[in-house]
């Protein structure tokens, strides 16, 4: 009986550190402090076509992330959320003069129903330019303090108005709390442009 208790105690101590190691990639890959002051407390599940999931800095291809993904999280009852998908590395991580470029943004999401929220910026897939290296494409989820005025929507086909943007400043202005996040990396490859073949 004592051995069981010891094992349970060790598991309880170790398992959070293993979990935190993934979220710690926000620090090791420089997203803290490049776009947020601290890593998110929880993971965000982002699933692309074909069941492709992002996992804290794994490299994915442009075709894998071409279509708008399914984003899920453990929501609180009656809560509203803001989802931001952003690239802090425009035109490159070494020279981020366009930090940040917003690829997708939805506010006033009830619970975890993204389709029921107000889309402020239409989804635009990753498109790193040739020779700019790896970009850290980042999903951030914030819990709102109340409803947000979505303003004029930026369509999926529109580039204007997406940069420069600052996720952390936007969150502070709207009194939001970062609750989850995840990210992948992507770079230009010949033959990896456009939608994936069916």
Automatic annotation (TrEMBL):
The lineage of its organism: Eukaryota, Metazoa, Ecdysozoa, Nematoda, Chromadorea. Belongs to the phosphatidylethanolamine-binding protein family. It comes from the Eukaryota. Residues 1-20 form the signal peptide. This is Uncharacterized protein. Keywords: Signal. Pfam families: PBP. InterPro entries: PEBP (IPR008914), PEBP-like_sf (IPR036610), PEBP_euk (IPR035810), Phosphatidylethanolamine-bd_CS (IPR001858).
